[in-house]
Records
---
Amino acid sequence: DQQVKQNSPSLSVQEGRISILNCDYTNSMFDYFLWYKKYPAEGPTFLISISSIKDKNEDGRFTVFLNKSAKHLSLHIVPSQPGDSAVYFCAASGVETSGSRLTFGEGTQLTVNP
Amino acid sequence: GAVVSQHPSRVICKSGTSVKIECRSLDFQATTMFWYRQFPKQSLMLMATSNEGSKATYEQGVEKDKFLINHASLTLSTLTVTSAHPEDSSFYICSARSPWLAGGGDEQYFGPGTRLTVT
């Protein structure tokens, strides 16, 4: 039962343009969402998070949007840079469901072309 | 801040031997540490959750006698793969969480991972 899904395994964008990575979830008890970036043979790096009481959180070039009614979140990166090329995982947690455990999506490989 | 280290980064061992992987939170005290496994082109699979001073909670399908987890202090957790077999070859990643870090959410901070190859 995949509770967190990233339906696009890959995304390719031009440098300077916007990258939009999408994530859907099924468990309505999730109340905290996170995005991680991962390079090959390295551990994931925390990027940005959002609580379910918000619908937007911004940190520099990264913005996360949460649509609770649609059970959908997205990560916007603008402007995209070649160094952003990596696998991006969304993750979700909920005190009622799993305590501090995170449920990860399958990941989306982002490639930013110079 | 929130740096997590893992040692070793890469290990090759013979089938039947045991391997210990260390996970340390370098600049914070981790109340909870997690161990993940990642297969090529797949997502992170949570193996177990450990709280300092108590027994680890293993995910369904993970053999607790094979993957021994010890969380003896607030900065150190170890994963020992016992009687390793080639199918245990994988990328093992630990993460740490602390409610005292800024943000206070469920952020986990990951180590760089350990590549285990069993021959």
---
Amino acid sequence: GAVVSQHPSRVICKSGTSVKIECRSLDFQATTMFWYRQFPKQSLMLMATSNEGSKATYEQGVEKDKFLINHASLTLSTLTVTSAHPEDSSFYICSASGTGLGTDTQYFGPGTRLTVL
Amino acid sequence: DAKTTQPTSMDCAEGRAANLPCNHSTISGNEYVYWYRQIHSQGPQYIIHGLKNNETNEMASLIITEDRKSSTLILPHATLRDTAVYYCIVTTFGNEKLTFGTGTRLTIIP
């Protein structure tokens, strides 16, 4: 099956610093990657959609200058949380879809838990 | 995308079949029904999807009513590892952005 990995799985940082989260498709080419955020006891909320080689499309209310997304290759997308604050503490999950899967399905990474002190 | 309605929670005895319902009465003709589940503190896991025919894979079966206004996900022999939140999502393409509702919290009881 299609495998998506994320790194790191957990990160703790100080307020005001930046954190980069990587999302990789291990066995397929991800033409589209999605970034979701999930607060405790809530459902997943889409933050942005990125296509390889293009600028990301952000959902309403998501600050593009704060959450920088780069999808420079067909197997890697990164999310950088800039000038992190405690309210950015959340579970960040990426998903990917693309060629070679044989079906139009999104596959999700295991998630990254960010804690901002 | 069409909205879906799922029960908030369900219990099922270990070894029995777990039947999770989903209503999607406003589904359009070109929309698929996708099921994902999320085990605590993990990313969602794809289970199965269908358009109008019933589908079965190694994880589950998906039964879609003839009018397509509702569906049921069936886990044939539930185990403790099936305890999770199950999301029913209706979308035109599975590779487009997905809108997650609150899902059904399924608890498998020993």
